[in-house]
Amino acid sequence: MFIAIADTITLADAGNFQEFHVAIDGDVAAAVAAFDGRAAASERDNHLWIDIAFVRELAGAAADAEWAARFDAMLAYADTKGWIDEAAGRVEAHIQPPD
User: Fold this and answer.
1) Closest of 95, 91, 25 to residue 56, by C-alpha
2) Do 91 and 74 meet the contact criterion of CB atoms below 8 Å apart?
3) How many whole angstroms separate alpha carbon 59 and alpha carbon 57?
4) CA angle at residue 29 from 73 to 17, to 5 degrees?
5) pLDDT (tens digit, 9 = 90+) per residue, 77-89?
């Protein structure tokens, strides 16, 4: 799954739990601003910290029990890699240009 930032912020490929990234074409600071407080720049280049609750919100109809369980499993894996900030409730995502 990935978060796309264009005129709006959307969650695309919501059933793909094997990857997570943010698709932006442009400035990281502008991308952070687009999230309106629901993301923060990472100390690592080309990464953002994304609010986990916001990802669930973006999932909308996809957020059924099966989706939630698979998303939680993805987050558990991310935690083993250091990609979760529990205090802030955020998951780290790399940035890549849109396809």
Assistant:
1) 91
2) no
3) 5
4) 15
5) 999 999 999 999 9
DSSP state of 2: E
- Residue 71 C-alpha from the chain's centroid: 11
Q: CA separation (Å) from 54 to 1, 26, 37, 90?
A: 14, 22, 10, 9
H helix and E strand count, the chain: 3, 7
Find how far residue 20's CA is from the centre of its chain. 6
Q: Which amino acid is at 67?
A: W
In one letter, which amino acid is 82? G
Tokens of 90: 């955020």
Which two tokens mark 76? 């558990």
| Per-residue pLDDT tens digits for 62-77 | 668 999 999 999 999 9
What is the phi/psi pair of residue 84, to 5°?
Answer: -120, 135
**Which tokens sit at 92?**
């780290």
